[in-house]
Predict the 3D structure of the following.
Amino acid sequence: MGSAQVPRGVGSQLRLPAEHARRGAFFAAALRASAFVWFAACPLSIASVAATSSAARPQEELERTIERVERGLVPRVRALGRDDSPRELSQRMRELAVPGLGVAVIEDFRVSWTRSYGVREAGGSNPVTAETLFQAASLSKPVVAAAAMRLAAAGKLDLDQSVNERLVSWKIPDNEFTRGRAVLLRHLLSHSAGCTNGSVGSYERTAELPTLIACLNGTPPSRPRPVVVDYEPGSRWRYSGGGYSVLQQLLIDVSGKPFVEVMREQVLEPLGMRHSTFAQPLPEALAARAAAGHDDAGKPLAGKWQVLPEAAAGGLWSTPPDLARFLNAWMQSHAARSEDWLEPSAARAMATRQAGSWGLGFELDGEGETLCVRHGGSNAGYRSYLVAFPARGQGAVVMTNGDEGSELAREIVRALARENAWPDDQRVVRELAPEPPVLDESWVGDFEYAPGWVLHVSLKEGKLHLGLNEAPATELLAESGSRFFTLANTDVEFARDGEGRVVELRVTRDGESAPTSARRLP
């Protein structure tokens, strides 16, 4: 996640700590994965098309493939006994209030096809095209990681050298955790440095913007707390946008150049990413081609988008085709098909586990022929996702301009995975309770899990629904007498007191091991 703020309608104005912001952004997407919101401004038909084909893949065959993907969207969960018919992309865009998106697909180590849908801003008529810029959010991180790996391969950085030995303008504050073990570049790239600030701050376009060093120090007008180390570097994994802010300053100090110039020289220009920039704020010359960000109800953000001075963590503006070029170039290096941009050893190091399931810039799954790298992105008003299978030379990038775009992006990738037999995004099969519990008003109430973050349980037409703050609610499906789930694979357990009154919700995200507790409000 690039920004610590949560979209409007789910508490963005509260400026909560990053941990609450991450959970809030998740709840906003996960709870609404199957909620229906009619978004009249989003056209029912495809807005624009850009596709390429080769002699080995005739255009007619490619069009049939794309049509199957567009009509084959399914949620994360398959609930046995419930209608599980695939839905169309245009339908899901309306349901999730996502005005526009772009897709780029890689096949056999080449960008095979791209396609664009919807509009750049709700209520407008300007279509999304292959040249429309989106905020890439945390997809920025693997791009920055690749720049660091190029500098390491050139001998200008060392993965296993203390970064404080190379930092000039700012140093990681020394404390009891860093005295025994220094923070290494390897730690920053793999989210194992112990750096605080899981997310970084974003700011209105009219606001006074902090410098990068002010952000690192946590001094006004920056918003997050200072970046410090609060556990022994290298001892465990924890996602840290703040760690990538340290990396941003490191790249500036080592090169003696502005960060925007470093990224242009190391990645964007060599790979022909002509529609991409790390410039923050976005230059006016490019603003005319940018998609506006939208909240979870499909309303444009105030000022259309926000600014992220900590650009390494989430400040890249890009397009799906440009990011697909990056992803394909990385796979070419990983497979030793090309050494022009990145040395194969550096590319392979990025896909080697360092901490938990993470490599250097990518999250990893599988190994060998089934190795998969992925990363998600979440800024206010924008959601994105990339996935690649380097042994196969296959992958995809999806970028959206809506706060509900995360689930939509995963549904698109899920359809692509089924079409191309990718070993990724496999569905979860869940069983409904054979005897559903009796639902009445005793289940209904408001439950707070952080100040200002309220989960609303309601009963509509005999079915329980769960919503977060002002966001529309999604249906809860009963798995047992007290446990429910959503089609996004979020589990909700209702805990009662000795008098049978529901006093707590225990909510577990897809894949999480520990639940989040939300206590009933008076």
Summary: The first strand starts at residue 48 and ends at 51.
